[in-house]
Amino acid sequence: MKGKILTSYGISGKECSASVELLNANSNAGGICWFYGEKEPKNFKVIYENRTTVLIHASGKKIIGAEHLSAAALAFPNSEFALHTPQGELPLLDGSAKLWKEELNNIAQAGFINFYKPQKKEFEIKTNERYLKFVAGSELEIEYIINRFGQKFEASVKIKNPEDLEKILLARTFIFEQELQAANLSENLKPCGVLIQSDENPNFRFENEPAYHKILDFLGDIALYSNALPCGKFTIFNGGHELHHAVTNFLSYPL
Questions:
Q1: In the chain, which segments carry CATH 3.30.230.20?
Q2: For residue 254, what pLDDT is reported?
């Protein structure tokens, strides 16, 4: 079953479109087949580039901005989807994963989230003043703190079932006013996220929305290779995609 085509601007500022197709509703290894139609579609690597996640297939084909769709697919552990994206870039839509979740829900049945136990019981990654700590446990818990430009946002969540993802998937992407000029983002992206200014309160959907969006990015990044989540507690301070991707070196993904 094919979903509808969703269109908006991508992180590049160019208009792009994408759709998903349900390939298998009873798969043992569900999730997104990012390079559907390519030889060895799982033969890809993940990098951080221009403020977003980029997937690069062995053929050289790229997919830009996959993390929001990847996070939305976590609620559909036994469904395998094909991604169709003619421009090689996913639309940001409203800057959250809400619309992706709704689209997947139109063509598939949600189920219980898959979890696994990483082989590493404890690790820590530091980059300048940013850090990520992990301690193994019986369930997934994420504490995310953003403390920049005199503003602090924090969120702590436990994830056990798809309902626990709802608030996370609603959180929109954001940028601080102090970063805007250097980021050189297109004016087209104004409807796709939140600008955080120092002299006024942004129109957040809920308190600490930026911290929840960082949790969304984190889940999406670590689920790109597998739509299962690791058990344990993650504590992340001023993290970002680059730090998230470093975590994949410590996780033992299920086959």
A1: 6-107
A2: 63
Confirm if 192 and 95 have CB atoms less than 8 A apart. yes
pLDDT digits (tens, 9 = 90+) for 174-196: 999 999 999 889 999 999 998 88
**CATH number of the 6-107 domain:** 3.30.230.20
CA–CA distance, 165 with 104 (Å, rounded to integer) = 14
Residue ranges of the chain that CATH labels 3.30.1700.10: 114-247
| The amino acid at 158 | K
- Give me the amino acid identity at 149: F
| CATH topology (fold) of 114-247 | lpxc deacetylase, domain 1 (3.30.1700)
Chain-centre distance of CA 104, in angstroms?
A: 15
Mean pLDDT of 83-98: 97
Q: How many CB atoms lie within 10 A of CB 184?
A: 9
Per-residue pLDDT for 252 more than 90? no
Q: Is the pLDDT of residue 27 over 90?
A: no
Output the pLDDT for position 119. 87
